[in-house]
């Protein structure tokens, strides 16, 4: 009877063992089905194609979850990464090669209901150093993706159950802690195989760390201080990207603190949590089984903050550029319409004076502005340097009133003459500056100087009218005006460089030639387009003087953006040679050389130099004045600030 009972017990135990193993195997397989990344890819494990297929599936899941959570910026970033992965996979399947370093990094699949919070360690736990997104990505990629077979795991669990069953048979006490891990551990293993990272053993807990905060405000300030400290450390180590990331997170906490003090609700789930920090009072800590996933999600959030901020910066920059373009278009439209009105008004005035031909010219010019106006209305850029200048007014356009009994003193006539001269100079100066800014496309400055010129013209009309009526000169005063001007030579094209040899001063005479008998000329070779094909020029010969006046200009053909031309400007300069013209059967004798440095052309449109004439390395005492002009500087604009006295007639 005892043997029969023992056999029945053994049979029941065998059935129980098989039942437990079967149940565990079923649970494991169901867990595998719940993990989308566990599906066996078609490619060989460990190959580039296998990696790309896993990343594509990972990015698709992340995109779906990001859209579900309403994170459009993150979804767009994942979609860009997905397109890159798909193109790489297509290239690999066609036999092409790709740069594995350019494969988009792994991302957390995310949770549609909101990112999980990292686990809160016990009070007194050590605060680990904040890990940057780059370091986290490197650590993720450094860990091998080695999913564990569920069948192998279930077989390895069987000896644990056998030991428990054997202890039960002998009537010994059983330690439940020795049983294989629960289903939560199975889920954790599945999650780690999904994201391609194996769970690392927990670090030993030390006795130092952040103090458990008593209030929400204290917790927020504690975390903000930690991120500010991490930002300072990153700046000290020269890691600007990490410093910007930590600074941005610190500002998030600063904003949350302001909201909390003002009594407004704060979304704590959006605030990244420094590793090892205790939870905020009143907030639930992450469940232990979600710890690994929460850490991954938090690290992914830290990594995505920089990219999201970059996307937002790009969007803001695009919006700013679009706004600036609209403002420029509206300014151009207003400018063009005003110029058209000026020509229409001038045509009407010419017609009233019976000058039909001039009226037709003004009318054609006004009509010619209509295509530019239409382009500006449609938002297109217009080259305002091609816009004609305002219609000019000649002296005969002023209103003349003749009085036979007008008698003016000589002193009044002198005052009228001086005032008229000053106003005319101011008018011409304003028109010159207006044209210069027109060529640079600066509408605001162009309009400003045109209005100043118009005021000068009206003052001239008032002055002329008062003089012809025999009145005393109008009251006037001088103001100190400060304005910015741009130096440009609109008569030159962008491919012109003008070299003007002005004069020589106290040039040395060669041996055997008296100073008064010096017949000097200057020649130069400009080494562009190459030293083998320089552009050669020389001045005329000025006889019988050692201080010749040349005032000769030579136009060279250049390419402003050519590397060879920039090299000549920045390093070589312009070398000039002075010669004495020989007579019959006599060769020309060298007098000396002069070198003009051209680096200033980078920021100035004209370089004026008075340089020493050298005999080898020895100064000769002679000098040469040379000017070099471009239409405008090679880099930027030649802006100058001018302060001068400005004549203003008092309004009576």
From TrEMBL:
Residues 478-611 form the C2 domain. SMART domains: C2, DM14. GO terms for molecular function: DNA-binding transcription repressor activity, RNA polymerase II-specific. CDD domains: C2_Freud-1. Residues 103-121 have a biased composition (Pro residues). Residues 95-148, 303-332 are annotated as: Disordered. Keywords: Coiled coil. It comes from the Eukaryota. Residues 318-327 have a biased composition (Basic and acidic residues). Pfam families: C2, CC2D1A-B_DM14. SUPFAM superfamilies: C2 domain (Calcium/lipid-binding domain, CaLB). Residues 308-317 have a biased composition (Acidic residues). Belongs to the CC2D1 family. This is Coiled-coil and C2 domain-containing protein 1B. It comes from Pygocentrus nattereri (Red-bellied piranha). The gene is CC2D1B.
